[in-house]
């Protein structure tokens, strides 16, 4: 059997890079970059080649190998692995850069900030304090060459080659024999008499003073240059002078030096140092302290170095969420640090945490995620959105908290482009139908309409045909005035998605009914929309060859570019109602009322007002709703709707608070709608297309009234009675107020074939009358049968005990 000698260097799990060695510090070691063979993670490798006749240097290198392997401290160079053979010594540490090279590179990029230098020196002094006070060791080599910087910008103390015990057990300090290192020795070492009184840390503190001088002024030419402070900050000068004093007895202990520098107004008393110190002790901090720290951290991250945020703050944030139950407070700083990451790093570090957060039941966590979704949505792929995120997000549509429902609706603007066919065209539409029809909060109904208009271009052609006209028609009958405006703007923003037949038979009749709306803002937008659609119809009527061009998007597949003005219309409703919703939450923190409740109707104009509803201090003026005047001359082009986002929508939040809740008769009359389809096939009701949806989520549900109109409480006035800041004073009245259908003195007539989507013929009324007669006959028959049974039972009387029942 043959035995072959194995090469330990070849079997070593780390390999040196092909790049030339970095600027190695003075001494026996040569610093190389390297990587771990198994994972490819970067490391630094200190290499010493054993040379014949250099036994003293070999012993120094072996001593450094032993010291670095046994000393563990956050501020001392971290040992990972090592290799010792007869020919060489390898020490593998974390990936670091010599301090001299690091300062030079940063100086070319603009230089280090004073707070970064203060924290770096803090780490070096803390390492010295650990060695002297805890280990009883003298470093004996503190200088620029003995300090290294990791990827997070943390300073690490290395260069343990000439370390010795403070008790003198190993025969005193070893001889260096290198002039570049001996120039940092204190002057008292030249006195061999031993009569100079000194402390065990005196020599290292002198060398620390030399290091401080070099950090701010560059390489030290000679010891006499220490007398000139140069660029050393004024807050550090008094403490620096103590280090380089001629009397070694008065040089402070490293622990006391740190204490002096952290005093109020001193060099190391700043936010950056405080943040680092908290992060080092975060595991032992109380939960309340962690919450406060993470809340304040986001404000400071802008002034912190990018490398520090990526490699030190980010791991602590991830750890705090995974194991510390930090909750939603980590989200803001987490996403702020995420901006410094590459796309690949974001996928590896942030996205798994975000996906896990969406499954949380913590409301604060969910609403923070929804509010900040735009910061990470671009890193989410479609399978992740559809399988791991959307199923959790849709629960927000059913939440009792209005703020969560509102943010869930807004988040659909970002999620819609990534949703699959089923989630977008089926699941999401069911929730939108329920919200628009049944939600008791006007701003949420309004936002649902706005969101539907913005994502309309992503819907399939069949879904667009079935949903958009019906949804926007329903919005135009909402008692909340901004919702009616949103419905009109929704028609205009998606004008290119409707056929000319739908424009003439479905959309224009709905818009025409709004020309007598009590709110002036609704009337103005309705007139503008009508002119736009009429211009479109007129252009095709004059030139029928334009029909194909006008209807090119009607049956086209979903595309984000087809939405026309949908990309920017009614932006107020998506971004400006959050504070209003928060007010609603504070004013009404309990669960919402049942869906069967009917809002109160306002009183007629002549009704006495005993307790008028307060008007906001800054009422919304109608000029905010007014648009720029039309160009007179040529007819308007069909693309006029693309300019409707020029409105000033910022005041809608105020109007949303002051508009009184008003309600129409929302009876949709399903049977009558079906009959109307038979008699008028070209004029079917917009809501009739939704008959296939489930009852709970259909657009046909929600606005129906099963009870007769209730009398309006005293003190309620029509919205048109208030002075909304328009050009005419309120005492003149609104000429359209008399046309309001929200009167409680008499029921709303149903005979108008153009009102409230009543497209049925006369046959419908006869059917309803016959059904009513049949129902009454059945009721009378039931009462007669019950009376006969009661009479028969009373005639026989109660049965006696033991009597035999005879038929």
TrEMBL record:
User: CDD domains from the xrefs?
Assistant: PK_SCY1_like (cd14011)
Q: What is its main location?
A: cytoplasm
Q: Which residues does the annotated region (Disordered) include?
A: 14-35, 587-807
Where is the sequence biased in composition, kind Basic and acidic residues? Answer: 764-774, 781-794
Subcellular localization, as worded in the UniProt entry: Cytoplasm, Cytoskeleton, Microtubule organizing center, Centrosome; Endoplasmic reticulum-Golgi intermediate compartment; Golgi apparatus, cis-Golgi network
Which SMART domains does the record cross-reference, listed alphabetically?
Answer: S_TKc
Its biological purpose: Regulates COPI-mediated retrograde protein traffic at the interface between the Golgi apparatus and the endoplasmic reticulum. Involved in the maintenance of the Golgi apparatus morphology.
Task: Summarize the subunit comment.
Answer: Homooligomer. Interacts with GORAB. Interacts with COPA, COPB1 and COPB2. Interacts with AP2B1.
Protein name per UniProt = N-terminal kinase-like protein
Supply the gene name: Scyl1
């Amino acid at each position: 059997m043959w035995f072959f000698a194995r090469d330990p260097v070849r079997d070593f799990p780390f390999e040196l890079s092909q790049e030339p060695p970095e600027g190695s510090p003075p001494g026996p070691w040569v610093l190389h970059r390297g990587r771990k063979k198994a994972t490819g993670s970067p490391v630094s490798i200190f290499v010493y080649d054993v040379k014949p006749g250099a036994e003293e240097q070999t012993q120094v290198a072996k001593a450094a190998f032993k010291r670095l392997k046994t000393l563990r401290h956050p501020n001392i160079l971290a040992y990972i692995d090592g290799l010792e053979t007869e020919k060489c010594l390898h020490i593998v540490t974390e990936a670091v850069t010599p301090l001299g090279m690091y300062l030079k590179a940063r100086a070319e990029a603009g230089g280090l900030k004073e707070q970064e230098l203060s924290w770096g020196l803090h780490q070096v002094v803390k390492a010295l304090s650990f060695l002297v006070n805890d280990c009883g060791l003298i470093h004996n080599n503190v200088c620029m060459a003995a300090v290294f910087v990791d990827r997070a910008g943390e300073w690490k103390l290395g260069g343990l080659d000439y370390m010795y015990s403070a008790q003198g057990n190993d025969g005193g300090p070893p001889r260096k024999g290198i002039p570049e290192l001996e120039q940092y020795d204190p002057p008292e070492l030249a006195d061999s008499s031993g009569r100079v009184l000194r402390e065990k840390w005196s020599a290292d503190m002198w060398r620390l003073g030399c290091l401080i001088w070099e950090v701010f002024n560059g390489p030290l030419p000679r010891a006499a240059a220490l007398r000139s402070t140069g660029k050393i900050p004024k807050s550090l000068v008094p403490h620096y002078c103590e280090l380089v004093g001629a009397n070694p007895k008065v040089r402070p202990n490293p622990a006391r030096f740190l204490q002096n520098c952290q005093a109020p107004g001193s060099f190391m008393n700043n936010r950056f140092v405080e943040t680092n110190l908290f992060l080092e002790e975060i595991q032992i901090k109380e939960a309340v302290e962690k919450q406060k720290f993470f809340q304040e951290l986001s404000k400071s991250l802008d002034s912190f170095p990018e490398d520090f945020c990526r490699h030190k703050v980010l791991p602590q944030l991830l750890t705090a969420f995974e194991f510390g139950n930090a909750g939603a407070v980590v989200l803001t700083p987490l996403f702020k640090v995420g901006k410094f990451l590459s796309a690949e790093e974001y996928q590896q570090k942030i996205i798994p945490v975000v996906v896990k957060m969406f499954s949380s039941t913590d409301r604060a966590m969910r609403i923070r995620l929804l509010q900040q979704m735009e910061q990470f949505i671009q890193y989410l792929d479609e399978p992740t959105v559809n399988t791991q995120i959307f199923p959790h997000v849709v629960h927000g549509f059913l939440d009792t908290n209005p703020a969560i429902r509102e943010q869930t609706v807004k988040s659909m603007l970002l999620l819609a482009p990534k949703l699959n066919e089923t989630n977008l065209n089926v699941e999401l539409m069911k929730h939108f139908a329920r919200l628009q029809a049944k939600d008791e909060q006007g701003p949420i109904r309004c936002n649902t309409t706005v969101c539907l208009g913005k994502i309309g271009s992503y819907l399939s052609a069949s879904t667009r045909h079935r949903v958009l006209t019906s949804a926007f028609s329903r919005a135009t009958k909402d008692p909340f005035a901004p919702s009616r405006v949103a419905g009109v703007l929704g028609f205009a923003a998606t004008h290119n998605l409707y056929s000319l037949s739908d424009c003439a038979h479905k959309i224009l009749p709905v818009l025409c009914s709004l020309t007598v709306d009590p709110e002036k803002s609704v009337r103005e937008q309705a007139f503008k929309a009508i002119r736009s659609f009429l211009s479109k119809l007129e252009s095709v009527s004059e030139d029928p060859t334009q029909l194909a061009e006008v209807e090119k998007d009607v049956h086209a597949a979903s595309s984000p570019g087809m939405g026309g003005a949908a990309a920017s219309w009614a932006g107020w409703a998506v971004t400006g109602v959050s504070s209003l919703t928060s007010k609603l939450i504070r004013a009404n923190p309990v669960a919402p009322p049942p869906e069967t409740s009917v809002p109160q109707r306002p009183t007629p104009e002549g009704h006495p007002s005993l307790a008028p509803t307060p008007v906001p201090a800054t009422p919304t003026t109608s000029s905010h709703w007014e648009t720029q005047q039309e160009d007179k001359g040529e007819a308007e082009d069909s693309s006029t709707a693309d300019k409707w986002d020029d409105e000033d929508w910022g005041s809608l939040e105020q109007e949303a608070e002051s508009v009184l809740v008003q309600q129409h008769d929302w009876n949709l009359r399903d049977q009558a709608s079906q009959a109307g389809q038979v008699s008028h096939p070209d004029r079917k009701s917009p809501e009739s297309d939704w008959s296939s949806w489930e009852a709970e989520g259909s657009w046909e549900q929600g606005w129906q009234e099963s009870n007769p109109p209730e009398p309006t409480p005293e003190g309620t006035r029509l919205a048109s009675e208030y002075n909304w800041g328009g050009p005419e004073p309120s005492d003149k009245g609104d000429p359209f107020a008399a046309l309001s259908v929200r009167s409680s003195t008499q029921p709303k007539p149903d005979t108008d074939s153009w009102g409230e989507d009543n497209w049925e013929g006369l046959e419908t009324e006869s059917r309803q009358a016959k059904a009513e007669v049949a129902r009454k006959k059945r009721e009378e028959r039931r009462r007669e049968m019950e009376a006969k049974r009661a009479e028969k039972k009373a005639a026989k009387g109660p049965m006696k005990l033991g009597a035999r029942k005879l038929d």
